[in-house]
Design goal:
The chain has 178 residues and is of the alpha/beta class. It is built from 6 helices and 8 strands, in the order βββαββαβααβαβα. The longest helix has 18 residues. It is globular.
Length: 178
């Protein structure tokens, strides 16, 4: 009897956070130009987006996503997308504050931080977000964020959370994904 579902296709996800090394841009195009038997990346995650103290103050690492230094990155991201590789961004990470700003009962505060994030995702045509929650956040808060992303971007928008070992040990370091 044939399998009911097609065989699982492995995924190779690359996190790209060092966009510059010694003041030289680090291209992602080798992900396309090298033989797939060597690299074979299926998804690219650009890291790391942070929501800072003032609403609308979003940084990709240390600079706004619109900074001219990121122009080659966004250009190459579109090339990878055209080749069938989804491009996501990682939101949060070790720098605290992003998810605190998206949590809580204050809907106006949520909107003040969420709306510029949504607009940045649209501007750069991202295919999804990796929510790297390495700080306290309520379950209701992360559900609200996921629901809004799904409502604003549709079922094809990729949303991931991936716990690391420290989050699973149960020694006071529990987080939703890190």
């Amino acid at each position: 009897m044939p399998p009911l579902q097609p065989p699982h296709k492995p995924r190779v996800v690359l996190y790209h956070q060092t966009h510059y090394h010694q003041n030289a841009y680090v291209s992602v195009l080798p992900l396309l130009t090298e033989p797939t038997s060597i690299i074979g990346v299926t998804h690219l995650i650009l890291a790391a987006l942070h929501l800072n103290a003032e609403p609308g103050d979003i940084t990709l690492n240390d600079d706004p996503p619109s900074h001219p230094k990121h122009a080659p990155l966004w250009s190459e991201a579109r090339i990878l997308q055209a080749a069938g590789i989804p491009v996501l961004a990682m939101l949060g990470g070790a720098a605290k504050g992003t998810f605190v700003r998206l949590d809580g009962d204050d809907e106006a505060a949520f909107e003040a931080y969420y709306t510029p994030l949504r607009d940045m995702i649209r501007l750069h045509g991202l295919d999804g977000l990796d929510l790297d929650v390495e700080e306290d956040m309520s379950l209701a808060g992360i559900i609200r964020l996921i629901d809004r992303l799904a409502a604003d971007f549709g079922a094809g928008f990729l949303i991931t959370l991936a716990p690391v070992a420290a989050a699973l040990r149960g020694r006071g370091e529990e987080h939703l994904s890190g």
